[in-house]
Amino acid sequence: MHQPMAGARSTAFPALYPSQASLAAHPPYTHRVIEDPKWSLVTVPHLSELCLQHIIHNFEKNPILDRLLPEHQRKVLDRLSTGLPLTVTVNLISDEDYWKRCCTERWQVCDVSNYGDSWKRMFLERHLENILKRFIPNTTDPNQVLELIPLCKDHVRKLEVDQFLPPVQVDQKEERDDISDTGSYNEFDEVPMHHYDLGVLITALPHLEELHLTYGVKDCGMNFEWKLFNFTHRDCSNLAVAVKMCHNLKVFKLTRSNVDDDKTKLLVRNLLDHPCLVELNLSHNLIRDKGAQALGHLISRSRLETLDLCNNQIHHLGAQALARALAENSTLTSLNLRLNCVEDKGGEAIGRALLTNTTLKSIHLGSNNLSEPTAMLFSQVLAQNTTLMSIDFSCNHLGLDGGKQLLEGLADNKVLTEFDLRQAEVDEETEYLIHQIVWANQEASRLESLQHIPDKPL
């Protein structure tokens, strides 16, 4: 066979050796290789990392945590979504860093010191509170609350609910047509306004110690109606029974809820002989003398240490009832009657009670229309009582002589460390001298407390 000469251009296979013109007319298909300057074998994930990613992405369906090594648990917890269902996370995750992320991603202000320094407790309490604030009777599914009970019952210590929504109202004209002949219009008005019954919830929280409630609607704006702030008799009855059954409750606050005398008496009947309650706050309500008389009975039959009745409608009869209980009480340390109208008859009765009482440390009687007779009696209290440390007489009408009487009573007093006489119509010089005595008592108390602090070992 004829062999071409070496180095000669072959003409037998022209397709393998296209001409330059052919190349220019029909360029061949080419691949571009783009190199990533950041790529490195180091960035290739390890098999363990791929496994952890799989666990994280499938945690809701297949939560795996306890079987992992500690360093792998840490990686999973740091990257888990905070939106996982509580049914998955509550009983499995106790890591505080995870619950801290849950809190800080949901709320702008997070003061964990108010929750025993527990982020998990903070999240569960605030989550439950938010559900209660948005609960609409006859509209919201009750299971939203009931399903949370087994998840949070071991963690909730305090509940603060400053809003309760009423049921959604339908057209009243249509509803009136459906009322039976025996039903009254007033009954119709009251029935639809009952709020969520806390009974099932709070009686199922064995560690609940504080309950702060306000029956009203926040930020209602132009939709304001008085019925949005209607704390009904049924609401009160349900709440009273629930609180009675909450045996570990120490602090109960029911404020700004239009609590009147009848509702106060209903609450008191269920709080008598409560084993743990030490603080009761019914401030900013509608309590009058009969309600105060019932509360006087409660002081005599309970372990209350703090009673706040600020901004109610208590007059001298109610104050006298409280004074009678105070004269025999041995547990109450603080009584707040600011913004009532006890006047001198009530103020003098409280003063006489403090001549024998040996436990009360703070009394607030600001804005009660008090005058010189009350100041004269409290002059005796200041001279004899050795436990009272704080008195507030601000915004009264004690007058010049009343101020001088108080100054005389303070002459040998060594325990009073707070005395508010702002806008009490007391002479400026007298007020200054009183404050000098009080300041001296403060310094003596501070030095005494320093002497009782044990020295730190070197």
Q: In which order are the strands of the major sheet placed? A: 1-2-3-4-5-6-7-8-9
Average pLDDT rating = 88
Shape: elongated
Structural class: alpha/beta
Number of helical regions: 19
Low-pLDDT parts are 4-16, 171-191
Radius of gyration, CA atoms, in whole angstroms: 37 Å
The share of residues in extended strands comes to 5-15%
Query: Total strand count, please?
Result: 9
Structure description:
42% of the residues lie in helices and 7% in strands. Helix 16 links the parallel strand 6 and strand 7. Strands 1-2-3-4-5-6-7-8-9 form a nine-stranded parallel beta sheet. With 458 residues, it is α/β, with parallel strands linked by helices. Helix 2 packs across helix 3.
